[in-house]
Amino acid sequence: MNLLKFFKAMLTSVPRLAPHDCAARVRSGDALLVDVREPAEWAEGVAQQATLLSLADLNGTRTDWKPFLAANAGREILLYCAVGGRAGLAARVLAAEGFRVANTGGLSDWAASGWPIVKPAATGN
């Protein structure tokens, strides 16, 4: 990511939503849930229905992010990470590019809301 895009992203405001406030939208398919942690972290468990797309890929080559964003243009994207910091960064980057996004905190927030946490079938997309 170039420096100008980074600064623009840091100045972009995004909502912080609690998982219980957006769970119905994820269940219905109206919103997409994305785990932006790194692949090694996914083995510990992920929120059910989450797409696994690392922050490193978003800020790098976008090998996995590019096709995901193209296929889901116009849809709401709800992001989480371990505690919410990386999800907030990813949300600001995507919002600065025109995507509808929100930071939903960390995996423990999803677990505390009663959302199922599952082991991923494979690490990666």
Strand order of the largest sheet: 3-1-4-5
Distance between the termini: 22 Å
Mind telling me the CATH superfamily name? Rhodanese-like domain
Q: Return the domain count.
A: 1
How are the elements arranged and paired?
Layout: H1 3-10, H2 19-28, E1 31-35, H3 39-42, E2 46-47, E3 51-52, H4 55-59, H5 65-71, E4 76-81, H6 85-96, E5 101-106, H7 107-112, E6 117-118
Parallel strand pairs: 1-3, 1-4, 4-5
Antiparallel strand pairs: 2-6
Description:
Helix 6 (85-96) links the parallel strand 4 (76-81) and strand 5 (101-106). By secondary structure, this protein is an alpha/beta fold. The chain is globular, with a radius of gyration of 13 Å. The protein starts with a helix and ends in a 7-residue tail after the last strand. Helix content is 42%, strand content 18%. The chain has one domain (3-118): Rhodanese-like domain (Oxidized Rhodanese, domain 1), CATH 3.40.250. Helix 1 crosses helix 6 (85-96). The strands form 2 sheets. The protein has a 4-stranded parallel β-sheet with strand order 3-1-4-5, sandwiched between helices. The chain has a two-stranded antiparallel sheet with strand order 2-6. The protein has helices at residues 3-10, 19-28, 39-42, 55-59, 65-71, 85-96, 107-112; strands at residues 31-35, 46-47, 51-52, 76-81, 101-106, 117-118. It has 7 helices and 6 strands, in the order H-H-E-H-E-E-H-H-E-H-E-H-E.
